[in-house]
Each structure stands twice: as structure tokens, then as C-alpha cells.
Amino acid sequence: PSPPPQKKSYTTSIRKPTSFSLQPRKMELAQCLFLLSTALFFLCQQTVCLNAELRTLIDIKAALDPHGVYLSSWTLDGNPCSGSFLGVACNELGQVANISLQGKGLDGFIPSAIGGLKSLSGLYLHFN
């Protein structure tokens, strides 16, 4: 006679798959997206501000030097904060802060559009 069949026992161990957490990666991505969108927002705001200030400077030029004799460097395709606009200085935020045009032969009235230069702290037009 053959020996009685033995009961075999099997144990199954279930292991959780090793996974590295995606949470830090998602946080890094979210931070990068936030910083990028913030930078784009401020860049766009600065561009809008620069365009408004440029338009204001062109209005001032039209009022004080309509023939462009003295302020020929003030052009619509220029950048007032690049140093190319005669007598214009900007602050660290890229906003027009100072206009120094003394003794340039300008004549006329200062247009109300000058109020658009929100950061203007100095306007020097003497000896004109």
C-alpha cells in the first residue's frame, strides 16, 4: 500500500510593488509652473506699462516738439528705458521716473497725458 497523500500547504506572500513617490515630482512641477506663470504675468504687465508710457512720451513729444527737431530719438519703435530716449531715465522696475530736457529749445504746453507716467518723480524743462 502506498502512504497516504500528504497535505501540502502553500503560502503566498503578497508584496507591495516598490514605487517611488511621485508627490515630490508633482510639487516641483507645480512650483515651476507657478513661477513661470508669475514671471509671464509680470513680464506682460511690464510690457503693457511700457507701451502706455511710450504712448505718453510720444504725446509729450507731439506737444513740445511737434516737428521732432529736438526729440527725434523718441520713436514709437523705441524703448524709453534703453537709454536711447534723450533725457529719459527709468527706475529699476523699467518705468519712466525722470525726464530732463532743460535748454533743448522746446516750446508748448505739457499735455495732460503726462499723468500716465505713474512713476515720474522728476520733470526738468527749465531754460526752454
TrEMBL record:
It comes from Opuntia streptacantha. InterPro entries: DNA_repair-toleration, LRR_dom_sf, LRR_N_plant-typ. This is Leucine-rich repeat-containing N-terminal plant-type domain-containing protein. The keyword Repeat applies. Residues 50-91 form the Leucine-rich repeat-containing N-terminal plant-type domain. SUPFAM superfamilies: L domain-like. Coiled coil: none annotated. Keywords: Leucine-rich repeat, Repeat, Signal. Gene3D superfamilies: Ribonuclease Inhibitor.
